[in-house]
Amino acid sequence: MKLEERRELAVLEAVERDEQITQRSLASALGIALGLANLYLKRLVKKGYIKCVNVRSNRLLYLITPNGIGEKTRLTYEFIDYSLDLYRGVRKNLKAALEPLVQSGLTSIAIYGTGEASELAYLSLREQGIEPVAIIDVAAGGRFLGMTVQSVADLSATNYDRIIVASLDNGEAIRDELVRRGVDRDTILLILHKLGNSVSTSNEGRERVRKHT
């Protein structure tokens, strides 16, 4: 499932939940730029999946159309299949990477990220009998999987053998930025999924790390 399709599904779901949603709140919910949120809305309007109603001179109302509901259903089923394949692929890749580490006693593993891929990485660690020693993300300070989310700067004070970059689309870019910040490249593990046609955007990955660290 392509990244664009996942985002279109997220937009359709957001509009169905709240027809008064604004472009700014949509961008924030999806974690994308305002201009990109506007682009997706325009694209879905053009496809006939969303109807845009001008209720006031400065206020737009977004309504999901019957065709939009049908497309959301189709994408939802596709996303379920994608997620199952993704889980199996991530689990297989991480198992192959983690088993030699466990045999060598290298079991202090940190996870970078707080999204869907991070949950998959966490489950894979648990299957190997490993609890992560830290959760790292640009949005530090919150809680994820029962742990306090730390910043990249906190890694220097963390005793870890490996760090899993749990990103489905920007793993290589995030890895390169971590290396630039002093993390040993040999300690970084990527989730090497080969599913769908997700696009990796280097600039986006670097910006995510820079923005909050």
UniProtKB/TrEMBL annotation:
> What Pfam families has UniProt attached to this entry?
HTH_24 (PF13412)
Give the species this sequence originates from. marine metagenome
Q: Which InterPro entries match?
A: WH-like_DNA-bd_sf, WH_DNA-bd_sf
Q: What is this protein called?
A: Uncharacterized protein
